[in-house]
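Batch job 17 of 40 flagged for manual review because the log was empty.
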Amino acid sequence: MTTAASEIQKTKRRLRPRIIGIVAHDKVSKTRKVVVEYLARHAKYGKYLKRQTVLHVHDEKNESRMGDHVEVMECRPYSKTKSHRLVRIVSRGPQIDLSAISGEASQMFEKRKAAAAEGSPSAPAADAG
């Protein structure tokens, strides 16, 4: 065996633990807040309590969205609070299409506005009360 091959075997890196959590916040570019929930036993009473840890995760491609189940791993610090990076998206969360809702609401508003301008009886009375 050559010395280069033996050096590669000696410097083999340890596997870092991977954690699965849910994306709770995705408003900042390349940063996600991932919530990891776990059960912890109460010291005195023995009851299991639900606990959570919030991790700031680096998402280079901005590919995860709120509600997604993601796998993250520890890495070098990217910033003061961000020391984990996104490995993969395990499953997609429910996505809500807000464009359809906002479009429908604006159409209803325009109809009511036009009806109020014409003075039709279907418009709500402004001086009632």
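Reviewer: the log was empty due to a logging misconfiguration, but the result itself is present. The two ends are 94 Å apart (CA to CA). Unflagging and moving on to job 18.
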